[in-house]
Design a protein that fits this description.
The protein has 40 residues and is mostly helical. The chain contains 2 helices and no strands. The protein is 78% helix and 0% strand. The protein starts with a helix and ends with a helix.
Length: 40
């Protein structure tokens, strides 16, 4: 797939490491959100 096709179709290639990093960040943020709710 050419670069221009990626922008036109909105499909972006992400490697597994990047996807895992995003998942870990979301998990961490979820845990922090739960902890903060305890203080409110």
């Amino acid at each position: 797939m050419r670069k221009c096709e990626v922008y036109r179709t909105g499909v972006f290639h992400m490697d597994a490491e990047h996807i895992n990093q995003i998942g870990t960040t979301l998990t961490d943020l979820s845990a922090r959100t739960q902890e903060l709710r305890g203080y409110l």
